[in-house]
Model the fold of this input.
Amino acid sequence: MIVETNSTYETFELGKKLGSEAKAGKIICLNGDLAVGKTVFTQGFASGLSITEPISSPTFTIVQEYTKGRLPLYHFDIYRLSDISELDEIGYEEYFFSDGVCLVEWGSLFPEIFPEETTYITIKKNIEKGFDYREIEIINK
Done:
């Protein structure tokens, strides 16, 4: 499925809708270039889980845990990792197979970590359609 958004608000609202529908054990691989809107989408997703804490990209901490919502959200950013063993060190499988929802930014760097039922979301810009235009592809497996 492809969804087009034309503002950060619409990208946030799409994330919020998907977050409100998320069930425990959901894993999302979120991809897109730098500054494409992954954090805005994630903020909306967290809002859909009734998480009210500020959401920021966990670039330097690798994973942020948000546990005060309808379901826990484990927000990964694996952009800076150089080897899959670093994911093993933080115990990513404990997060993946927990009672929460995992959202992994830059997951395409290590596709082998994702189970079969992963949802893949890719956000792309198209400046010809406007500065705030985003094409968001959602693939449920």
Q: What stands out?
A: Helices lie at 8-21, 38-48, 85-90, 92-96. The chain has a mean pLDDT of 93.
